C-alpha cells in the first residue's frame, strides 16, 4: 500500500494458538512489553475446551480457531480481514489486476454480501448486477453466517465454471437468481479518449499495480492524437480505491514536484508518514519512473475531477490532494469517506508477504489526511461544485451507502458522529420516488455509460473547462459530520 505501507513484506503477527496454551504471555505493542488480558484468554481457552469435549458431535479444532480469529478481526471495522492461504493468494491476485471469479467489488451488510460495484466488462457487469445488490445465496449455500472471506472463496473458482447467485435488489423489492460463468478478470483500470478537439477524458476505475503505467500510456496516446489539449477531465466516479502508491503517482502527474499528497497517522512509527509528489514515494520497488514520459503540458492543463459516492480510498486521496493544492476543480457528489489505511501482513515471520505461503491479516493501521490535514474517514471529499447525475437531478443519492453508514466503521478522529435526521428523511423520500421509477421499463432506468455523449456530469465538466455555465445540483447536499453535545 504505497512506500512503507504498500503490499511488500510487513512484520508478522504471532499466532492465536499460543495464546490459548500459555498463561504468562506478553505482547510487543508500540515498542514496549504489555501484558495480555490473561483472564479473558483463559475464558477463551475454557470455552474452546468445553466445546471440544461436550458439543453434540466432534468439531474441527482448526476451523474453530480460524473462526475465532476471523470474528476477532471482523469486529474491528468493515475493512480489517483475516485471510487463509487460498484467500490471501486471491487477494494478492486482485491487487495485481487479475483473478478468476465473477468480477464484483463487495462488502458486508446485515450478514449478507453487498455489491459495491461490478467491475466494468466483467461477467457480473454483463449479467446486470448493480451497486447495493445483496447476495443472499451462492449456489445452494445461504450467505447469512458466512464471513466475507468465505463468500469470496465460494464465488471464486476455475475458469468457465458456473456459479448461481441469488440476488435481493432492495430498490425493486425482489429476489431473483443469476447464473454467472467465472472467467479470469483482467481489469483494465484506465480508459480515456479525446472527446472533442482540445478536450480529453481519462477514467481510472481502480488503483492497481499497472494503473500508473497504463495511465501514462493513455495520456501520451491522447496527447499524440491532440497535442493542443485545452482541458482534461479526470474521472474517478465509482473508483473504490486500491494501492496507495498508485494514488500518489496519479496525483504527482498533475502536481508540482515534492508537494505533499497525503499523510497517514496511526499507532506505529511505520504508520506515520507524509507522502509527496516525488518518485521515491510512488515508484514501485526499484522500477523506473512511469511519469517521466508524460508531456510537460500535463502540469498546467486545466483540470476537472469527477467524483461521486462510489469514489473511495485511493481515489479520495487523489481528489483531496488536487483540491487542496487548487490544481483542479472537483465536481460531482460527496465521496464515500474511506480514509483508513489497511496493512497486509504475513502471519509467518519467516516470510515476506510476496512469498507468504500461509495465512495473512489485513488490518487497519492508520487514517489518511489530505495535504491540509483534513481526515477523509467517514467524511469524504466535498466537491467544489455539486453536480447531479442527470438533468433531472440525483433523486436517489440519499439511498447510496457511504463509509459512515457501515456498521463498526472507524470514526474520523475529528469529531463524533451522530445520525442526521434530515438524511433519514431524505432516504424515505427517495424510496418513494424509487417506487415510481421501478414502474418504468428497464431500458429507461439504465443510467448512461460514463464517458458517453449522454453522460450529464461529463458534459458539465466540459462546460466548466470551456468557461460555459454549469448546471449545479438540484438535489445534492453535503452530509455533514455533526458533533455530540458535551
Automatic annotation (TrEMBL):
Recorded GO MF terms: endopeptidase activity; serine-type peptidase activity
Domain PDZ: 88-170
A GO cellular component entry from the record: outer membrane-bounded periplasmic space
Keyword tags: Hydrolase, Protease, Serine protease
PROSITE patterns: PDZ (PS50106)
Biological process according to GO: proteolysis; signal transduction
Region of interest (Disordered), ranges: 264-293, 409-456
InterPro entries: ClpP/crotonase-like_dom_sf (IPR029045), CtpA/B_N (IPR055210), PDZ (IPR001478), PDZ_sf (IPR036034), Peptidase_S41A (IPR004447), Tail-specific_protease (IPR005151)
Gene3D superfamilies per the UniProt record, alphabetical: 2-enoyl-CoA Hydratase, Chain A, domain 1, 2.30.42.10, 3.30.750.44
PANTHER family in alphabetical order: CARBOXY-TERMINAL PROCESSING PROTEASE CTPA (PTHR32060:SF30), TAIL-SPECIFIC PROTEASE (PTHR32060)
Entry's family note: Belongs to the peptidase S41A family.
Name assigned to this protein: S41 family peptidase
Amino acid at each position: 500500500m504505497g512506500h512503507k505501507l504498500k503490499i511488500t513484506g510487513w512484520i508478522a503477527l504471532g499466532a492465536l494458538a499460543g495464546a490459548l496454551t500459555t498463561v504468562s504471555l506478553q505482547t510487543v505493542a508500540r515498542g514496549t512489553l504489555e501484558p495480555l488480558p490473561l483472564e479473558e484468554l483463559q475464558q477463551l481457552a475454557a470455552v474452546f475446551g468445553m466445546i471440544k469435549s461436550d458439543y453434540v458431535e466432534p468439531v474441527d479444532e482448526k476451523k474453530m480457531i480460524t473462526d475465532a480469529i476471523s470474528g476477532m478481526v471482523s469486529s474491528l471495522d468493515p475493512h480489517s480481514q483475516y485471510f487463509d492461504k487460498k484467500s490471501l493468494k486471491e487477494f494478492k491476485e486482485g491487487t495485481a489486476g487479475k483473478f478468476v471469479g465473477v468480477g464484483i467489488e463487495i462488502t458486508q451488510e446485515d450478514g449478507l454480501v453487498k455489491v459495491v460495484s461490478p467491475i466494468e466488462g466483467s461477467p457480473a457487469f454483463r449479467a446486470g448486477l448493480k451497486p447495493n445488490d445483496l447476495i443472499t445465496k451462492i449456489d445452494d449455500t445461504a450467505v447469512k453466517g458466512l464471513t466475507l472471506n468465505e463468500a469470496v472463496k465460494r464465488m471464486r473458482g476455475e475458469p468457465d465454471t458456473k456459479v448461481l447467485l441469488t440476488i435481493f435488489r432492495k430498490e425493486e423489492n425482489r429476489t431473483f437468481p443469476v447464473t454467472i460463468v467465472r472467467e479470469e478478470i483482467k481489469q483494465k483500470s484506465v480508459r480515456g479518449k479525446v472527446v472533442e478537439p482540445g478536450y480529453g477524458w481519462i477514467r481510472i476505475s481502480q488503483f492497481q499495480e499497472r494503473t500508473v503505467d497504463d495511465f501514462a500510456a493513455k495520456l501520451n496516446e491522447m496527447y499524440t492524437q491532440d497535442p493542443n489539449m485545452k482541458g482534461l477531465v479526470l474521472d474517478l466516479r465509482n473508483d473504490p480505491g486500491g494501492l496507495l502508491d498508485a494514488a500518489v503517482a496519479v496525483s504527482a502527474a498533475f502536481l508540482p514536484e515534492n508537494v505533499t499528497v497525503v499523510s497517514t497517522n496511526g499507532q506505529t512509527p511505520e504508520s506515520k508518514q507524509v507522502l509527496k509528489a516525488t518518485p521515491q514515494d510512488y515508484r514501485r520497488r526499484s522500477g523506473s519512473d512511469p511519469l517521466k514520459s508524460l508531456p510537460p503540458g500535463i502540469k498546467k492543463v486545466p483540470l476537472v475531477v469527477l467524483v461521486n459516492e462510489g469514489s473511495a480510498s485511493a481515489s479520495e486521496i487523489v481528489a483531496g490532494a488536487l483540491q487542496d493544492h487548487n490544481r483542479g476543480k472537483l465536481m460531482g457528489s460527496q465521496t464515500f469517506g474511506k480514509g483508513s489505511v489497511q496493512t497486509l501482513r504475513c502471519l509467518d515471520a519467516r516470510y515476506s508477504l510476496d512469498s507468504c505461503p500461509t495465512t495473512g491479516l489485513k488490518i487497519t493501521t492508520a487514517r489518511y489526511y489530505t495535504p491540509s490535514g483534513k481526515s477523509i474517514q467517514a467524511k469524504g471529499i466535498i466537491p467544489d461544485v455539486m453536480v447531479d447525475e442527470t438533468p433531472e437531478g440525483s433523486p436517489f443519492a440519499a439511498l447510496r451507502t457511504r463509509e459512515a453508514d457501515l456498521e463498526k466503521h472507524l470514526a474520523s478522529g475529528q469529531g463524533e458522529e451522530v445520525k442526521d435526521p434530515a438524511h433519514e428523511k431524505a432516504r424515505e423520500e427517495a424510496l418513494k420516488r424509487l417506487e415510481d421509477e421501478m414502474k418504468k421499463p428497464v431500458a429507461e432506468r439504465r443510467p448512461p455509460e460514463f464517458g458517453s455523449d449522454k453522460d450529464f456530469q461529463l458534459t458539465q465538466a466540459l462546460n466548466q473547462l470551456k468557461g460555459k455555465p454549469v448546471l449545479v445540483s438540484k438535489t445534492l447536499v453535503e452530509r455533514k459530520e455533526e458533533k455530540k453535545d458535551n
